[in-house]
Amino acid sequence: MQIQTLLLIAPPILLALTFHEYAHAYVAHRFGDDTAKQNGRLSLNPLRHLDPLGTIMIFLVHFGWAKPVPVNPYRLKNPKKDMLWISAAGPLSNMILALISGLLLRFLFAAAGMPGQNSLMSLVMFMLIMSLQINLALAVFNILPIAPLDGSKILAGLLPARYENAIAQLERYGPFVLIGLIIIGRVADIPILGALIWPFVKFFSKIFAGM
Question: Count of CB atoms within 10 A of residue 37's CB?
C-alpha cells in the first residue's frame, strides 16, 4: 500500500473505530453502567480505544479490531434488553457516519462535479468514499451473529430466555469460527466474509451516495 493511500485511509479508519467504541460506552453509561467511563472509554480520543495489533491488522489484511468496551451487566436495570441496545449502538454509529459521508459525497458531486486527478477535491472525495465503505463494512461485519461480534449479543437479546444456554455455548466457539473463516479465506483465496459483507456495502453505498 502506498504511503499516500495509507495517510488518506487512516483518518476514516480511526474515526470509524473511535465512534463505534464510543457509542458502546455512551449507551452503557446512559443505561446506568459507568464501567466504561471509569476506564476512560467514554471518550472520542482514538488512543483510548485502539488496539495496536488490531489496528495494524486492518492495514495489512483489511481486518482488525479495537479494544472492547467493558460493560458490567449487573449495573443495568434490564440486562437482556439493555445489552441489546449497547451492542447495537456500535454498528448504528457506523451506519450514521456512512450516511453522513454519502450525503457529503452527493453534495460535492452536485456542486463540483468530477474533480481533476490529484486535486485537493479529489483527495477529499477519496477519503469520503473510504469513510463510506469502511463504516458500512464495519457495521455489517459487526452484526454477524458470531461471538465476540456485536451481532451475537444482539441475537441473544432478541431470542427468548429458553435459548440462553444455547447462545452461551455458541459464544464459546464463536472466536474460533471467526478466526477459521478468516484463515480459510486468506489461504484458499476465497473471500468468505467479503461475500457476506460487500453486497450490503454496495447496496447502502448506492442508497447513501448514489454510487
Answer: 14
